[in-house]
Design a protein that fits this description.
Helix content of chain A: 25-40%
Shape of chain A: globular
Largest sheet of chain A: 6 strands, parallel
Distance between the termini of chain A: 31 Å
Number of strands of chain A: 6
Strand order of the largest sheet of chain A: 3-2-1-4-5-6
Bound molecules: manganese (II) ion
Order of helices and strands of chain A: EHEHEEEEHHHH
Radius of gyration of chain A: 15 Å
Oligomer: homodimer
Strand content of chain A: 5-15%
Structural class of chain A: alpha/beta
């Protein structure tokens, strides 16, 4: 199979950016060539998380069909939140925790949605199901997204599965969840144009 | 949570009928009250499978909102293939192996699609992931659907996962896969109005 690009929604938040990184890693481990990219510059919270775990910043794209014919969407499914040329691409995978709307495909695909607080909570389950080890750096990025989307477990969308995943990921990343969580959210509040979209 | 009705598409085939039965059993084991129903009378192939495993025939419904407010769709997602009052219902779960089209929800949901030959292949994976034992009768119905949708592994949509699931399910049901498979498909060929839809 030809290489896939993996990306979250436009105006990316921490879950959009890091779920592309974690799901691309998952696909690579499953033998599928995939590169995580982003549909915009990272915000200050995500900048903090990427620097904290010494991760590479994803390449920013505005179109994908000039590079690939197939893509994986994370943390979104609605075409108007996706890459500008989404209609010219085959969506092979979706991993998301939002309602489904303005989305359709010509062919069968892999679609995994669960009503949890964060896309990375679902990706954590994918790693577990496939018995693939999560590297410490990726675990740190994944737990950052769960903290961000659930406001450190205080949002009404937070579920028991989010808390369980965050605790396991914090252990893998050797993090103090409460202390790091407050630091991360504080880094984010500097941002004026913060989106309400999880 | 209030009771869910679980059903496959209109003009039900063996996968539509039996994936409702197997997924309702899975939901019940997960603590979710669910009843498998069908959107039409079963065809001759499905009749053969239900009788062979001494299973109850599902109740046929034409509307659901008079009974419940939420439903689970199996083996389909397109609203025009679903229950007539689908727009008045909350879709809480979908398990399917078709393209996504004419489907949308107001709220986040559980959606599990994979590009495999049969919905019951995916449901087999759900049981495995949750470590829930599959009763022999339900295993027999599930393998019947895989045989039906893949024409005993000869269809172009058949994947290695379908074959693996069918072999494991045949063992649970104490079936000779080849002999039973030919019998099942033969029972189905008596039917004139057989649909091409998997
Ligand atoms: Mn998001
Ligand atoms: Mn999210
Ligand atoms: Mn079908
Ligand atoms: Mn089917």
């Amino acid at each position: 199979m030809e290489k896939l690009l993996v990306f979250g929604h436009q105006n990316p938040d921490t879950d959009a950016v890091t779920s592309a990184i974690s799901f691309a890693h998952y696909l690579n481990q499953m033998g599928v060539e995939a590169e995580a990219v982003a549909l915009g510059e990272v915000n200050e919270e995500t900048d903090f998380a990427l620097r904290h775990f010494e991760a590479d910043f994803p390449r920013v794209i505005t179109t994908a069909s000039n590079e690939v014919s197939a893509v994986a969407l994370v943390d979104h499914n609605e075409f108007q939140q996706s890459v500008s040329d989404i209609s010219n691409l085959e969506v092979k995978y979706v991993v998301d925790h939002h309602r489904i709307s303005n989305f359709e495909t010509a062919n069968p695909l892999y679609y995994r949605a669960e009503p949890v607080g964060c896309t990375n909570t679902i990706i954590y389950k994918l790693f577990k199901e496939a018995e693939i080890a999560i590297p410490s750096q990726i675990a740190g990025l994944m737990v950052s997204a769960i903290i961000s989307d659930t406001l450190l477990f205080k949002s009404p969308t937070c579920t028991g599965e989010d808390i369980k995943a965050a605790q396991a990921l914090a252990e893998l990343a050797e993090l103090d969840l409460e202390a790091y969580g407050l630091e991360l959210l504080k880094a984010g509040t500097a941002l004026e144009n913060k989106s309400n979209e999880a």
